[in-house]
Write a structure and sequence with these properties.
By secondary structure, the chain is α/β, with parallel strands linked by helices. The protein has one domain: Leucine-rich repeat, LRR (right-handed beta-alpha superhelix), CATH 3.80.10. Strands 1-2-3-4-5-6 form a six-stranded parallel beta sheet, with helices on one face. Helix 2 runs parallel beside helix 3. The longest helix has 13 residues. The radius of gyration is 15 Å and the shape is globular. The termini are close together. This is SPRY-associated domain-containing protein. Keywords: Leucine-rich repeat, Repeat.
Length: 167
């Protein structure tokens, strides 16, 4: 059973048939961890609502959020984007690799980043289907001096990141 680090965060990975309760996500994220890895945890759109709420919180210090390989789809990303656009969001790295995101989800992300461009530096959208217009919107952020976005991953390139077992 995994345990959170006292100051840095929680790394997790979960088998597809298991569910991580929304309340559990909110409680642990509200502890102000610096990173939270929830790759392959079968997260739902309700989970995205809870995560968005935490990102909007004044007390959140979350810097890295890895939601890779979850079935979030565009609606989940749209819900998550309401947290990213908050002036209280301090997220620097967002990994959404393999989350079934299309142009619609990229539009939500681009809109959120236009509203709050000051923190996010790295966005991983590899193994999704952003389409040309979705990539154009987000790629424009790399050139915009108001955005801090330095790294945009897309296509079939994936950064390697160690995942830990879910609790």
């Amino acid at each position: 059973e995994g345990q959170p680090s006292a100051t840095t965060g929680w790394g997790t990975e979960r088998k597809a048939e298991q569910r991580l309760p929304v309340k559990e996500i909110s409680v642990f994220l509200c502890l102000c961890f610096l990173f939270f890895r929830l790759g392959v945890c079968n997260l739902s759109q309700k989970s995205c609502e809870a995560l968005s709420s935490v990102l909007r919180s004044q007390s959140s210090r979350l810097r890295e959020l890895d939601l890779s390989d979850n079935n979030l789809r565009d609606l989940g990303v749209k819900l998550l984007s309401t947290g990213v656009e908050s002036p209280h969001c301090t997220l620097e790295t967002l990994s959404l690799s393999g989350c079934l995101i299309t142009e619609e989800g990229c539009t939500s992300l681009a809109s959120a980043l236009s509203s709050n461009p000051s923190h996010l530096r790295e966005l991983d959208l590899s193994y999704n289907h952003p389409g040309d217009s979705g990539m154009k919107l987000l790629s424009a952020g790399l050139k915009d001096p108001g955005w801090r976005l330095d790294i945009l991953r897309y296509g079939e390139r994936r950064k390697s990141k160690k995942h830990f077992p879910c609790p």
